[in-house]
Each structure stands twice: as C-alpha cells, then as structure tokens.
Amino acid sequence: MRSGPTNTRRPRRPTRTFVSLTGPAGNLGDALIRRGTLDWALGTSDELVAYVGAAPDAWLQQLGIPSDALVLRSKRSVPRWLWLLITAPRHPVLVLEAGEVPLDRGNVLRELVFLAETVIVRLKRGVVVRPPRGIRAPTNPAAWLHARAARLSQIALWRDDASAAIVGGGRVAPDIGFAAGVRPGKPADEREELIVSLRGARRRPDQAWVEAVRSTAAAEGLRIRTVVQVREDESRARELADALGGVFEPWGATDAVTQENLLRERYDGARLVISDRMHVLVLAALSGAVPVELVPSPTRKITEAFAAIALDGISLDAAACDAEEIQRFLQTQLGRTGEVRERTLEAERQLAEVEAEMRATILAARA
Questions:
Q1: pLDDT tens, 7-16?
Q2: What architecture is the 188-346 domain classified under in CATH?
Q3: What pTM value is reported for the model?
Q4: Distance in angstroms (rounded) separating the CA atoms of residues 238 and 206
C-alpha cells in the first residue's frame, strides 16, 4: 500500500535584521535618534544583530537593546558583521543609523564598506533602510559612494533638502527624533520657565544676548534655567546660569536614562527653549515648548531640519543683532505655541507612515 506524499520542505531558516547603533553615551540627542532607529528595526526579523562600536554597557540600556540581540562592539567586530551579512538567510534587513553623516575625505573607506553591505543585502533579496539623515562636509569620492548606496536602498530618507540634493534627489522626511512622542506638557498658563542649553565648544554669546534673554524672561514672568543634554556642555550651562541670573541644573552623576526623563519633564514646563543643539529643540518642541536657535553665526543644520516639518524662522544670528532686536524676535517666537504643536504632530504622523511603509516593504520582499 502506497503511503501519501511526504512533505520534503526544509524548515524555514530564521530571518535576520542588522542595525547600526553607534554613538557617544554622553549625548542624549544621539541616543534619541539611535533609539528611533532601533524601534524601526525591532520586529522585522527573528534575529537582531546590533553594531554599537565602542559604546559602553550603559549605552545598551539607554537605547533599550533587547537582551537576546547579538551585540557587536569595536571596529574589530566589523569582519564578523560582514560575515554574518554574507551568510545570513535570504531576505535580510539592514537598518543604518539615523543622524548626521560626515562625508569628508577621511570617510571613503567607511562609505565603501557601507556600499558593500548594501550590495550584499540586495543580492540576497533583502531590504536596506536608511532613516532620515543629514550630510555634512561632502567630498568625493565619499559622497559619490554614499549616493550609489542610497540609490540601491529601498528606503532612503533625508532630513533636509540640501542633503537630498547632494545625492541627486530623494525623499525628505522629519528627523527621526520627532517619533519620540508628542507630550501634552503643562497647560500654557502653568509654563513658568525659559530654558537654555548651548554647546560648550561654540563661542559664548555676548552681553546683548544676555540682556535680551534676561529682559524677555522678566517681561514674561519666566524663571531661567540652564540644563545639560550633552555632557561636554556642562561648564557652559554653569557659566550661562551665572550670567543670566538663572538656575543651573547639572547632569553630574545622574545616569543617562534618568537624565533624559528629567529633561523631558523640564521641557514640559517651559514656554521657550533656546539652544544650538538640534535634539534639545526637537525634544522641546515635542513637549510643547517653542524651540529657538539663538547663537552667534548659527549653522544651517537646525534651520533646514525644522524646515522639513514646515517650521520656519526659528533661528536668529545673534551676532548680527542688538539686544532690542533679539528681544523682539523672542517675543514673536513666544506666540508660536499652537503652530509648534501642529507641526510636531504632523511630523510624528509622517514618521509613523514611513515606518509602516518600511515594514510593508519587508513583508513584500519575503512573500
């Protein structure tokens, strides 16, 4: 008697996602966008491989990397990363980290490796995802290699028009930090603070800047507080608190997770946040505070990234203005609370749509 047909199908090999999550543990903005990158990678495969570079254990906790992920550390693990890519089952997923991409002459080899990774994944009929990124210091051949890799990726996003133009066009999307969650914050009539957080490595603002910020706070009945979102800025925060007659809140020995939670609570109670750190302003906007870049000779990084969410005119070159001009600018910004809320909600919605598209692309590739 003949038996029925035997099922000879091989068991399905587990799928694998690779995600790059490097960054300094002392920069909460970098952690914010790397966590956003990780969120996009989670749930896309059975196995997760994360490259974190030289990051300490605290970085893994800060990002919330799952305990069952395979974590690769230091440049010495790059050959293993490539080998795991080459030997991965079909349809792997590669998610590169969001943020700023330096393309100066010292990054040619790195871009060549990224191009090779992209080619490997595409040959295995996988999916390559490049969350919103901004390009800095573009030079050839690094920029050329980067553009080739971006065009081979199914999802390639830029956080500003200038970066998209460098690679010959592409989709512009809000910075992934805007996916961290819009918060209700305190009601407008209970917001009593003007918060300042500036880079320690940049030229300190002059007396006209100090007078304008102090006068604005006094006119609005706001308490001035200086905070630290990047460890290297702590001394500058202390200096500014002294100059402004404000409250200095150090980072000190606080762990990074607690520090981030504390800062988000501070932004919840602020009406205005002044900074030249982009992700200070992103978190401030998510909390309902009005974000302002007010420093001497600002770069276009913040202006262009906020233009991508249609929030224009938040930056002012303090070196080109006297105290009265700066104060008028700050008074105008204080009236933009409703606009800020509207733009951040829309940015959050757009990023959710992009993530859904990415996951649908992965499912379609494996169908």
A1: 555 567 799 9
A2: 3-Layer(aba) Sandwich (3.40)
A3: 0.94
A4: 16
